[in-house]
Each structure stands twice: as structure tokens, then as C-alpha cells.
């Protein structure tokens, strides 16, 4: 008996975000009109967020294989081999729209969701990171959003008990109505005890675990793909509330039953909750699944089948258990005070059948539900190349010292301590390098192995030239891992863009993905997981293209990792890589000249690799005493960060004659690092560089309590530190 | 040293604590689940570690303080047994009535994770014999509700009886509001029970015990307890 | 003047605190509690004596800060 | 039956949250608030229909768990 009321009208179809041709595809597939529950199921499975219908064709081009890749994209998280029988499991995911509507809960549940993705695979989370993009500081909502998002990330991660060790924060008017909250989680598992989503075996119990189901975020998945307009504040969709306490219990209970060998397959309930978890388990295992919704633990009364299938209540899991272990598993869940209910079973039908109160609410072909989702080759146009700005055409706006003091206190370059001090970044006792450096370093179990972790992207480069920008995001990530002495292993990506139905936005997407793929290939840095967030626009204005890259690197002995702090006086400062003085799209041009113009710095991937390998070798053999990669703000900003971190200044030679000094100190040429070496070893290093054809130049000596460039006013480290540390707290206190 | 680490649902620094106890004393502590009603026989140190027991819901430590195991903890403390509560553990001990006062929201209303400086007020206690009186140590904090408050009479008694064991200070030991990150009365970071056998403190000495990870200033607390127990035996 | 703003969660919004408290009451042997939902009260001292003005002020405070109107409802009352 | 337990800080106990809210209201331009003290409410659903019994139950819940009577006062009311 089918429940086919209400009848499906075109309005209802449109409300579910399905286009007319998509609806036709649906009816062709099932040979009749869907029930309302079925329509809900399709709308969830076929929206952009779950189906990747606009992005799939392009994502397929990314390199996803490598000798250490155990599991690439397609599961809850990517898995790489880190030796000694251990695997690292990681992924990044966005929670952009929910965080704009309710910043605390939106960000908190974003963290909760990504943690679940990692422990669903049998890994214990050991670190979180995030990449945050906010609107202009002067926008009336920005302060509130920053405060709420940061508190929400901390509120969830701190309580759950995972250290949040790194991330990035930026501000730009193009995020005014569409902030980005990208959260990354990293876990460690035994290599041969990874758990997957594919069900196997017929007649196996499908078990619901965790918290009860409420009417949270119904249509959350669709909301995540809907453009915003001005009255979106009014719509106020049901917000999901996170319960990190329940998630911590869920983690412990899941790891315990996995350890006891009870689990055949497991899938967390994320976007489109029960719908996508159940269908995925069946489809991946070539099986049918029947659910009996009368058995689903509910928090609210009279929930309909439609609501249960689409609820995005948090802290829930679906599992297929070994029948003989069912009681043992139940006892463990009861001990942790969590709900446990057998709500269905597997069968050979290859259909997804949902029953509620004696009626069949849905009966759909399980594989086609996902596989037949529309797939688009959307038209795209690549943006015109922007002119290369000659440094000679950029008039210096201030003296070098004044420019540095100005830059170091800008929203994007200032210290983010106010943010990361709200995150417990030391719990676990394994945080070797805390936030504030190029990459965080976390000891793996009792060591000596360490993982290096970072998130990176430079959206203004991506906007100016998507292909170079995509390359640069990966290269900077690779460089940050290298700068702490780690060997970069793999990345997760989180691709945030505007409306893909606009060819120019699709052009940005395609360009960035091509750039990412190119860089990953050359740097042997495969993509093992990721997430796409489209439709980030308000009133037709899109965010800056923001493909966040989360990178993981391995260092065999964490004690050898380098930090950026100058260590002692009298050491030689070496600049690695070529400096042409590239000012196009630089922070100097934007912050001092108010110009967001020109072509971004090109990325020579071969040079990246050679320079990086050279620096890493110097770190690992103990020659380099500090190391820092060059990125936003260029050479002098990097030197200032090294001096502030170490409390040691530097005497610096003046800029070479052939480069305007502001371009030399603030240009953003890629593939560069600053390292220090004991004075006595400098010559040998320069010789080694020549042999390896790596450009290295001696630019000065550490010492004193200022940055003293010959011919310029000396810049006091203490004053710099006040400026760098001052902006964000003052802004958040409403003083700016 | 026979240590027992009490674990409540939502506690999350129990592994850090157990690892440190093992590292310093050479002995693996017993992990005791909140639903138990007795401590392992021969327990000479009970530790309630940090975390978010019951999600910090209602009041930090309130629900945990009423768990079955707490009667056993109370009995252990009443007999003079060493009892240490760190962070959420401190909050639980206060809620359980084993220590006076309460820990309120940090004055800035934000969670704060950073290294702080603590002035060790006395070295003649079972917990601080590894330090000198007046010594300043550097250890991390990670809490949103560490702002110690009690009524005037209680504060006067704590101060009068020398039961304030740790205070937030500047690196050179000055008590200064700029270095009191959570606003605690008299910069109180840790207090003793009237018999000096129960210590509650907000900072995490257990996270600063390995040179390879950072500093080792927290080690003295654990080494001191080991020494005290060895002497007592 | 004394006033009170009471802030409660909207129906349907998950209340993890309330849920934990229910469980704790049960295990403390307090029987007969079917459900608990936790909210906040703000006891506010207001300058002046104009009740209508006070009420407007309280509404403003609640909208701007005391309540998160995405997930919470509030009620203001001037006590006197 | 519906009931409400209201928990407030005792006079004389410092309320850092209340203090911070006062400051925040001022910086939001909400003028005329002399002081703020924050408390909690618990909206409780009770089984049965006996108001006296319900009240006893609420007192028990408040004493045992909902209030920290060292620093807090509470008030119970059966709403109906
Ligand atoms: N949202 C955040 N969460 C945690 N740490 C952050 C966050 N934002 C910035 N940081 C930390 O601040 C430091 C500087 O960040 P960033 O300037 O983006 O570094 P880089 O240019 O090397 O990528 C890094 O150590 C980073 O981890
Ligand atoms: Mg860097």
C-alpha cells in the first residue's frame, strides 16, 4: 500500500529545488509519480550538496592515487598510510550557510559533522583545523559572526576533546553575506582496521545509534545549495543544535564496538541524514535496505516519514552489525547512555523501502537513487588574463618601516591569537607545534612520528587567475608543511564558489580545479577527500573563489621539526627562491595602494619542489635553525613574524639595485622560504644550493631588538608585536 | 604510587593524566568509571581529570559531583587520602563540597587556552614539595569557567590558613590583574582542603611534563606527590 | 525599576542541557520528571520610572543581545 | 503538569556574566540599564496531577541538583 497523498504538484517540485527536467528524470526512473516522502528523498539526494551534479565531471580529473593512499575520495574521509601499521584519516567540509544564520551552532555542528566523518572510519580524532572567511570588518554583521563562529568551533571541539591546532582567518567584502566556515578533522587508525560504508550480507540488522531524531535542519541539505537573498534572515530554517557531549559518547561507543568486532558497515548521518546514510550503505554493498520508521527513536511527537527521512539531527550513526554481536553492541551503547534501535535490515532486492505506520512511504531503486543523479557539464567562460603589473609602476606609499607596521596590523596579516586561544590546542598532550607557525605538528601516539597539518588558499589570486590561484593554494599548503620539516603526503579540498549556473563562476571553478590538479600532480600530493560548496552568493554577487586546501605531511621524528622563531643572535639569514618583486595582487598593493589589481604571482611547480626539498633537507639534517615560508605580505612580513616569534631582531642588507625596495620587501613571488643557519655553516649551505641549482642569498644576520634594514628606520620588535597582536582583540571589543 | 583516575562521561583529559602519572611514577593508574561505587583497594591518590563531564551542562561539574563513585572519593578524602582535581576535576570537587567556593565564567566570557604563570605559595604540602615556595612555574590553562569565587569569609579563611596554593602571576611572580586571565578572586588558581590533602586547580600541570613537547614545569607536582607517598609508606 | 527578561528555547530546538539534566535527576532518584528544558533569566535594574519606556528598553536589549532569536523566544516583564 | 524552577544568584555573589552583559549593552548603545544579573529557568514537565506532590518533587530536584545552594537561591512554581 502506497501513501500517495498529497499529490505532487509542480509547485511542490519547485519547492524541493528540482528543475522540470530533473523531475522528469525522476518519474522516468521510477515509472510513476513519487510520494511526498520520495520527493523529499530525491530532493535531498539530487541537490548540489549531495550529488555534486555540477562539479563531478571536473573533480574526476584530480589526481587521487599515490603509493601511500589507502582510500581516496568517495568514503566519509580519505585515508593514507603513515607507516608502522598506522593510517591517517582526514577530511574538510563546509558549514557556510548554517553558520551565517546561526554562527555558534552552525560552526559547532560543522565541527561535529567532520569529526563524525573521521571516527566513522574507525579513527580516533587527534586534531582539528579550520579555514574561515568573513566579510569586511566594517560590515555590521561581521563582528557578531566572527565571535559566534569562533566560539562555536571552540565550544564543540573543546568539549569533544580534540585539539584545534591550526587554520586561517580572512576578511573581505565579498564574503559580506556569505561567510565561509570550513572545518577539517584528522584522525589516526590502525591501517588494517578501517571501516567503510558498504553493507554486506543479507538479512543483517540495520541499527540506529546515538541521539534521537528531531525536526532539526529539515531541508538543511537543500538550504546548503540555495542562493541567499535579503530576506533569508526571515526564513530562519530550523537550526541544528550540536551536542558535543553526545558526540564524545558516540565516539567512545563506536570505537569500542569496532574494537570488539561488531561492525560490518557504518555511516554517519550527515546532510540528508537517514536518507543518504541508508541508501549509501545499500548501494555500495549492492543490497537492498528496508527501514521501519516506527522504530526510529524520536525526540518530538508525530514526526512524519518525510521529516524522519530528511531530519539532520546531529550525533547519529547508522550501522550494519554482525547479528551475533548485536547484544554485545547494544550493551556498550546503553553503557554510554545512547539510543540503540534496530530499524531495518538488508536484503537482495536492491530497493530502498521505507515503511511507517503500516504504509509504504517510499520504494525506490537504491543504486539509481545516487547513481542516476543528474550530472551537468555546465557552460563556463574563463576570465580574461589580467595584465602583469610592473613594480616600477607602483609608487611606494610609505617608507619600508611604516609600510611594515601598517601591514602587520591589517585584518588579514595580524595575529590570530584571539581566535586560537579560544580553542584548546594542547589537549592530548601531543601538540608539538601550536598555532602561530606555518603548520601545526602533532605527535603520533608515543612518537617519534609527527603529522604536520595546515589549511591554505589565497582567494584574491584565485579570482584574478583561477588556474594560477588553484596551483598556488596547493603550493602554499605544500610549502607550509615543508617549512616545518615534513614531507607533504596528501590533501583534502573544500571548494567554495558562487552559482555554477553562471558561466563566469563555473569558469572560476574549472580553472581552480585544473590548477589544483596540476599542482597535486607535480608535487606528488594527491587529493584523498574533499567537499564542494556552491551557490555562495547574495543578490547575484559571489564570494571570492575559495578552494581551501587542507594538507597533511609526515615527519619521521617530530623532534626534528623546525619552527619559524629566530633562535639566537648572530645567525645568518638566507632567502631561498627567486625574488622579482611581484606586486600584482599583493597585500602591499591592496592594503597600501587600495588596488586589487593585476595578475597574481605565477607558480613554477618545479621550482616549488626543488626549493622545498632543499629546505626540508636542511631542516632534517639540523642545519637550519628556523624556517618560514613566504606568502601574504612577502619577505619583510615573514621576517617580522620570525623576529616576533623569537624575540630576536635582525640586521638586513638593503634591497638589490635592480628591484624597487618596496617590491623587494613586500612582493609575493612564490616558492620562497627564509631560513637561518649558524654563521659558520652559511658558506657550506650556499655551496650546496649552487650544486642543487637552488637560488639562495644571504640577506642578513639575526640579533638586536629591531629589524634594521640598512638605510631605513629601525623597526622595534616590541612595537611590531603590539601592532600585530592588537588589531583583532581591539576589533572584537568594538574599539575599532 | 597507586593512583586512580576517575572517569565521568564527557571527561576528556583522562588520557593525558594517565600518561603523565605513568611517566612520572612508573605505574599505570587504574581508570575508574563513574558508575562504580568503590575505589581499587590500596588507592593512595585519586585524580579527577579535566574535560567536560556531562558537557558542562547545568553547571560545570554539577552532575558529575553527584555520581555514585563520589561517595568513595569523599570517604578517601575524609581518611586523609590524597585527592587531586584538575580543571573540570576542580569544579567537580567544589560542587561535591570537598572544596569551598565555585568556578564561574571567565571574566572575559571566553574560553582561554594558553600558558600561564603560577606562583607556588608553599612547598610544605604533599603536592608541592617538588617546588620552592615563591617559585613561578609555567603551565597551560584551557577553560571557559575558571573564575574562582567564594564569599568573603571563606576567602579570608583560605588566605588565613595558607590554603591558596597557586596564584596566577606575572613571569616574575607579581600578582597583577593583567596576568589573571580569568578574573579569579585574589588570582586564585588552586586551593587546598582544610587538611591539606585535597587540591583543586584550574591549570593543567599534566600537559607540561615532557621536554620534547614543551616545558616540564608541571612535572614537579607529580614528582612531589610520588615522593610524599613514598615517604609516608 | 526592576525587570526580568526570560529567554527560552523555541519548541523543537534540541536542548542538550535539559536532556542531560533529565538523566541526572533520574539517576539521583528524583522520579516523576517527564522532561526538562533549560532557559535563562536576566534580572535587570533600570534607571527611571516610566514602565512603557522600560519595556521598550528591555525589548531592545533582548533583541540585540540577551536572546538569540534564531533559536530562542523571550518575554519581558517590568516587576516594579 | 507544567512547572518552572527559577534559580538566581544570591545577593553579594559576583556575577561576571551579568557584568559583561552590562558592558556589552552599553557598547551596543542600549542606555539606561543600571545592572544585570543572570539566572536560569527550568521548564519542567511533571507526571501526575497532584500540585502539592509536584511542588515537593521540584524542591527535591532543586536541592539535589538544579541549584548550588552555596551561591544560588531558587523558587519553584507549578504552572498547571
Ligand atoms: N581559525 C584559526 N584557527 C586556528 N589557528 C589559526 C586560525 N587562523 C590562523 N591560525 C594560525 O595562525 C597562524 C598564521 O596563519 P596564516 O597567516 O594563515 O599562516 P600561513 O600564511 O603560514 O598559512 C597559523 O599557525 C595558523 O594555524
Ligand atoms: Mg606559512
Number of helix segments of chain B?
5
The CATH topology of chain B is given as: Rossmann fold
Our estimate of the beta-strand percent of chain B is 15-25%
Tell me the strand order in the biggest sheet of chain C: 2-1-3
How does this structure look, described?
The complex is a heterotetramer, with 1 copy of chain A (736 residues), 1 copy of chain B (233 residues) and 2 copies of chain C (80 residues). Chain A contains 26 helices and 28 strands. Chain A is of the alpha+beta class and 736 residues long. Chain B is of the alpha/beta class and 233 residues long. Chain C has a 3-stranded antiparallel beta sheet with strand order 2-1-3. Chain C starts with a strand and ends with a strand. The mean pLDDT of chain C is 93. Classes of the chains: A alpha+beta (736), B alpha/beta (233), C alpha+beta (80). Chains in contact: A-B, A-C, B-C, B-D, C-D. Strand 2 (33-46) of chain C pairs antiparallel with strand 2 (33-46) of chain D, so a sheet runs across the interface. The site of adenosine-5'-diphosphate has 18 residues of chain A, from strand 4, strand 5 and helix 17.
Keywords:
heterotetramer, A: 736 residues, alpha+beta, seven-stranded mixed beta sheet, 26 helices, 28 strands, 35% helix, C: 80 residues, Mth169, Chain: A, three-stranded antiparallel beta sheet, 2 helices, 3 strands, binds adenosine-5'-diphosphate, binds magnesium ion
Brief sketch in words of this structure:
Chain A is an alpha+beta fold. In chain A, 35% of the residues lie in helices and 23% in strands. Chain A has 26 helices and 28 strands.
Give the arrangement of secondary structure elements.
The complex is a heterotetramer, with one copy of chain A (736 residues), one copy of chain B (233 residues) and two copies of chain C (80 residues).
Chain A: H1 10-15, H2 20-30, H3 36-46, H4 48-51, H5 56-59, E1 69-71, E2 78-83, E3 86-94, H6 96-101, H7 103-119, E4 124-134, H8 142-160, E5 164-171, E6 180-190, E7 205-210, H9 220-223, H10 232-235, H11 244-259, E8 263-268, H12 273-285, E9 288-292, H13 305-310, E10 316-321, H14 326-335, E11 339-347, E12 351-356, E13 359-365, H15 366-371, H16 400-407, H17 417-420, E14 431-433, E15 440-443, E16 450-456, H18 459-464, H19 466-483, E17 487-496, H20 503-522, E18 527-533, E19 537-538, E20 541-542, E21 546-555, E22 571-576, H21 587-593, H22 605-620, E23 626-629, H23 634-646, E24 650-652, H24 661-666, E25 673-678, H25 682-691, E26 696-702, E27 706-709, E28 715-716, H26 717-732
Parallel strand pairs in A: 4-5, 9-12, 17-18, 24-27
Antiparallel strand pairs in A: 1-2, 2-3, 3-6, 4-6, 7-10, 7-11, 8-10, 9-11, 12-13, 14-15, 15-16, 16-21, 17-21, 19-20, 22-25, 22-26, 23-25, 24-26, 27-28
Helix pairs in contact in A: 7-8, 7-11, 8-11, 11-14, 19-20, 19-22
Chain B: E1 3-7, H1 14-25, E2 30-33, E3 45-48, H2 69-78, E4 82-86, H3 88-95, E5 102-104, E6 112-120, E7 136-143, E8 147-149, H4 152-160, E9 164-169, E10 188-192, E11 198-201, H5 219-232
Parallel strand pairs in B: 1-2, 1-3, 3-4, 4-11
Antiparallel strand pairs in B: 5-8, 6-7, 6-9, 9-10, 10-11
Chain C: E1 2-9, H1 16-27, E2 33-46, H2 51-66, E3 72-78
Antiparallel strand pairs in C: 1-2, 1-3
The complex binds adenosine-5'-diphosphate (ADP) and magnesium ion (MG).
Residues 438, 480, 629, 631 of chain A line the site of magnesium ion (MG).
Amino acid at each position: 500500500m502506497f501513501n500517495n497523498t498529497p499529490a505532487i504538484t509542480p509547485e511542490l517540485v519547485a519547492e524541493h529545488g528540482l528543475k522540470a527536467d530533473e523531475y522528469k528524470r525522476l518519474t522516468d526512473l521510477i515509472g510513476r509519480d513519487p510520494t511526498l516522502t520520495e520527493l523529499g528523498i530525491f530532493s535531498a539526494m539530487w541537490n548540489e550538496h549531495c550529488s555534486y551534479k555540477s562539479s563531478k565531471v571536473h573533480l574526476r580529473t584530480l589526481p587521487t592515487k599515490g603509493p601511500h593512499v589507502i582510500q581516496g575520495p568517495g568514503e566519509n574521509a580519505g585515508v593514507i598510510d603513515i607507516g608502522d601499521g598506522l593510517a591517517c584519516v582526514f577530511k574538510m567540509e563546509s558549514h557556510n550557510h548554517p553558520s551565517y544564520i546561526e554562527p555558534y551552532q552552525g560552526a559547532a555542528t560543522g565541527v561535529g559533522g567532520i569529526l563524525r566523518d573521521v571516527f566513522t572510519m574507525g579513527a580516533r580524532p587527534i586534531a582539528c583545523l579550520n579555514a574561515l572567511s568573513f566579510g569586511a570588518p566594517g560590515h555590521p554583521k561581521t563582528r557578531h559572526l566572527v565571535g559566534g563562529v569562533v566560539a562555536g568551533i571552540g565550544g564543540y571541539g573543546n568539549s569533544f576533546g580534540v585539539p584545534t591546532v591550526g587554520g586561517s582567518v580572512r576578511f573581505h567584502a565579498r564574503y559580506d553575506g556569505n561567510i565561509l566556515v570550513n572545518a577539517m578533522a584528522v584522525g589516526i587508525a590502525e591501517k588494517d582496521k578501517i571501516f567503510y560504508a558498504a553493507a554486506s550480507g543479507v538479512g543483517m540488522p540495520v541499527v540506529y545509534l546515538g541521539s534521537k531524531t528531531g525536526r532539526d535542519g529539515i531541508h538543511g541539505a537543500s538550504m546548503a545549495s540555495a542562493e541567499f537573498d535579503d530576506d533569508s534572515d526571515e526564513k530562519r530554517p530550523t537550526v541544528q543544535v550540536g551536542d558535543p557531549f553526545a558526540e564524545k559518547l558516540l565516539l567512545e561507543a563506536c570505537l569500542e564496538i569496532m574494537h570488539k568486532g561488531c561492525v560490518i558497515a557504518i555511516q554517519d548521518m550527515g546532510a540528508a541524514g537517514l536518507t543518504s546514510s541508508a541508501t549509501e550503505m545499500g548501494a555500495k554493498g549492492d543490497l537492498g535496505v528496508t527501514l521501519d520508521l516506527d522504530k526510529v527513536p524520536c525526540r518530538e511527537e508525530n514526526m512524519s516519514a518525510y521529516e524522519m527521512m530528511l531530519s539532520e539531527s546531529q550525533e547519529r550513526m547508522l550501522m550494519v552489525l554482525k547479528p551475533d554481536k548485536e547484544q554485545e553492541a547494544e550493551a556498550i551503547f546503553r553503557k554510554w547512555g545512547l539510543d540503540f534501535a534496530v530499524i531495518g535490515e538488508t536484503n537482495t532486492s536492491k530497493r530502498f523501502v521505507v515503511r511507517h505506520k503500516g504504509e509504504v512511504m517510499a520504494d525506490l531503486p537504491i543504486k539509481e537513487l545516487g547513481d542516476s543523479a543528474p550530472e551537468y557539464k555546465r557552460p563556463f567562460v574563463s576570465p580574461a588574463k589580467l595584465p602583469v603589473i610592473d613594480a616600477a609602476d607602483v609608487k611606494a606609499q610609505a617608507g619600508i618601516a611604516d609600510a611594515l607596521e601598517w601591514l602587520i596590523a591589517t585584518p588579514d596579516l595580524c595575529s590570530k591569537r584571539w581566535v586560537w586561544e579560544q580553542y584548546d590546542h594542547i589537549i592530548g598532550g601531543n601538540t608539538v607545534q601550536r598555532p602561530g607557525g606555518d603548520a601545526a605538528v602533532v605527535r603520533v601516539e608515543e612518537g617519534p612520528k609527527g603529522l604536520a597539518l595546515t589549511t591554505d588558499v589565497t582567494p584574491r589570486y584565485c579570482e584574478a587567475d583561477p588556474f594560477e590561484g588553484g596551483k598556488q593554494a596547493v603550493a602554499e599548503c605544500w610549502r607550509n608543511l615543508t617549512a616545518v620539516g615534513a614531507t607533504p603526503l596528501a590533501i583534502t579540498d573544500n571548494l567554495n564558489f558562487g552559482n555554477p549556473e553562471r558561466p563566469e563562476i563555473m569558469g572560476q571553478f574549472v580553472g581552480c580545479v585544473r590548477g589544483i590538479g596540476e599542482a597535486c600532480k607535480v608535487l606528488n600530493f594527491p587529493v584523498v577527500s574533499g567537499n564542494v560548496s556552491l551557490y555562495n552568493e547574495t543578490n547575484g554577487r559571489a564570494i571570492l573563489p575559495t578552494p581551501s586546501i587542507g594538507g597533511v605531511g609526515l615527519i619521521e621524528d617530530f623532534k626534528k621539526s623546525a619552527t619559524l622563531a629566530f633562535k639566537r643572535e648572530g645567525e645568518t639569514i638566507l632567502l631561498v627562491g627567486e625574488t622579482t618583486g611581484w606586486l600584482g595582487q599583493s597585500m602591499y598593493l591592496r592594503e597600501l595602494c587600495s588596488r586589487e589589481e593585476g595578475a597574481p604571482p605565477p607558480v613554477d611547480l618545479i621550482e616549488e619542489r626543488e626549493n622545498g626539498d632543499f629546505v626540508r633537507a636542511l631542516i632534517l639534517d639540523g642545519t637550519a635553525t628556523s624556517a618560514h615560508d613566504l606568502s601574504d605580505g612577502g619577505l619583510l612580513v615573514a621576517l617580522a613574524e620570525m623576529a616576533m616569534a623569537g624575540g630576536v631582531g635582525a640586521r638586513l642588507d638593503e634591497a638589490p639595485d635592480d628591484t624597487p625596495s618596496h617590491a623587494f620587501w613586500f612582493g609575493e613571488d612564490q616558492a620562497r622560504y627564509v631560513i637561518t643557519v649558524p654563521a659558520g655553516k652559511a658558506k657550506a649551505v650556499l655551496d650546496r644550493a649552487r650544486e642543487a641549482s637552488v637560488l639562495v642569498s644571504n640577506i642578513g644576520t639575526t640579533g638586536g631588538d629591531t629589524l634594521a634594514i640598512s638605510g631605513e628606520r629601525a623597526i622595534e620588535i616590541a612595537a611590531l608585536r603590539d601592532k600585530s597582536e592588537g588589531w583583532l582583540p581591539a576589533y572584537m571589543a568594538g574599539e575599532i | 604510587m597507586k593512583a586512580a583516575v576517575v572517569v565521568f562521561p564527557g571527561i576528556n583529559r583522562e588520557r593525558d593524566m594517565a600518561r603523565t602519572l605513568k611517566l612520572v611514577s612508573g605505574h599505570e593508574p587504574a581508570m575508574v568509571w563513574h558508575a562504580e561505587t568503590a575505589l581499587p583497594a590500596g588507592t593512595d591518590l585519586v585524580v579527577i581529570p579535566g574535560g567536560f563531564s556531562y558537557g558542562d551542562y547545568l553547571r560545570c561539574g554539577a552532575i558529575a559531583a553527584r555520581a555514585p563513585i563520589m561517595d568513595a572519593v569523599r570517604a578517601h578524602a575524609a581518611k586523609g587520602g590524597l585527592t587531586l582535581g584538575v580543571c573540570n576535576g576542580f569544579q567537580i570537587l567544589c560542587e561535591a563540597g570537598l572544596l569551598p567556593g565555585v568556578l564561574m565564567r571567565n571574566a572575559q566570557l571566553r574560553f582561554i587556552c594558553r600558558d600561564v604563570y603560577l606562583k607556588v605559595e608553599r612547598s610544605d604540602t604533599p603536592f608541592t614539595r617538588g617546588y620552592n615556595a615563591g617559585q613561578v612555574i609555567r603551565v597551560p590553562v584551557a577553560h571557559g569557567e575558571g573564575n574562582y569565587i567564594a564569599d568573603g569569609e571563606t576567602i579570608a579563611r583560605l588566605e588565613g590558613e595558607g590554603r591558596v596554593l597557586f596564584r596566577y602571576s606575572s613571569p616574575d611572580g607579581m600578582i597583577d590583574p593583567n596576568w589573571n586571565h580569568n578574573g579569579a578572586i585574589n588570582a586564585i588558581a588552586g586551593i587546598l582542603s582544610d587538611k591539606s590533602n585535597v587540591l583543586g586547580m584550574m591549570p593543567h600541570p599534566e600537559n607540561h611534563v615532557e621536554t620534547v613537547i614543551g616545558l616540564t614545569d608541571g612535572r614537579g607536582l607529580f614528582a612531589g606527590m610520588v615522593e610524599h607517598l613514598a615517604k609516608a609508606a | 525599576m526592576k525587570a526580568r527578561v526570560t529567554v527560552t528555547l523555541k519548541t523543537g530546538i534540541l536542548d542538550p542541557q535539559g536532556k542531560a539534566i533529565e538523566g541526572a535527576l533520574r539517576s539521583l532518584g528524583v522520579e516523576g520528571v517527564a522532561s526538562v528544558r533549560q532557559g535563562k533569566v536576566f534580572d535587570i535594574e533600570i534607571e527611571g520610572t516610566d514602565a512603557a519606556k522600560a519595556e521598550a528598553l528591555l525589548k531592545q536589549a533582548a533583541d540585540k543581545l540577551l536572546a538569540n532569536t534564531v533559536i530562542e523566544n523571550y518575554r519581558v516583564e517590568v516587576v516594579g
